[in-house]
Amino acid sequence: MQQTTVSTKPYLIRAIHEWCSDQGFTPYLVVAVRQKMQVPQEFVKNGEIVLNISYNATRNLTIGNDYINFSARFNGVSRDINIPVGAVVSIFSRENGEGMGFEYEGTPEAHLDDAPASTSDSEEPPPRPSGRPQLRIVK
């Protein structure tokens, strides 16, 4: 029998999303943006994007084991979002900041078509931000 280790990360993301929704909180996702990830690049700041993934803010939200997919409106324009689960660095409640942080996990299959063959840094973790942490409670 072949034994495969499946990451707990997508399960934890789904659980915190469900907890936020049940409590009437707004779940936010912090994503480390790499290569040509399908997110609105104009909202990327310091290599990360913060996304509201509540059911009210998204359409057709799917939190799968490999990717998080949904459609959302940005400045009135509907955009399709496709995020590798490995790029999620945290999920938290906007109202009280409770949630969970994760290590950035390189997703080689997501970078194969995007990165030039000579690029060796596509799987390195993002640089650590200096100064104060980026997560903060938004009221």
Automatic annotation (TrEMBL):
<keyword id="KW-0645">Protease</keyword>
<keyword id="KW-0378">Hydrolase</keyword>
<dbReference type="GO" id="GO:0006508">
    <property type="term" value="P:proteolysis"/>
</dbReference>
<protein>
    <submittedName>
        <fullName>ClpXP protease specificity-enhancing factor</fullName>
    </submittedName>
</protein>
<dbReference type="InterPro" id="IPR007481">
    <property type="entry name" value="SspB"/>
</dbReference>
<feature type="region of interest" description="Disordered">
    <location>
        <begin position="100"/>
        <end position="139"/>
    </location>
</feature>
<dbReference type="Pfam" id="PF04386">
    <property type="entry name" value="SspB"/>
</dbReference>
<dbReference type="GO" id="GO:0008233">
    <property type="term" value="F:peptidase activity"/>
</dbReference>
<dbReference type="InterPro" id="IPR036760">
    <property type="entry name" value="SspB-like_sf"/>
</dbReference>
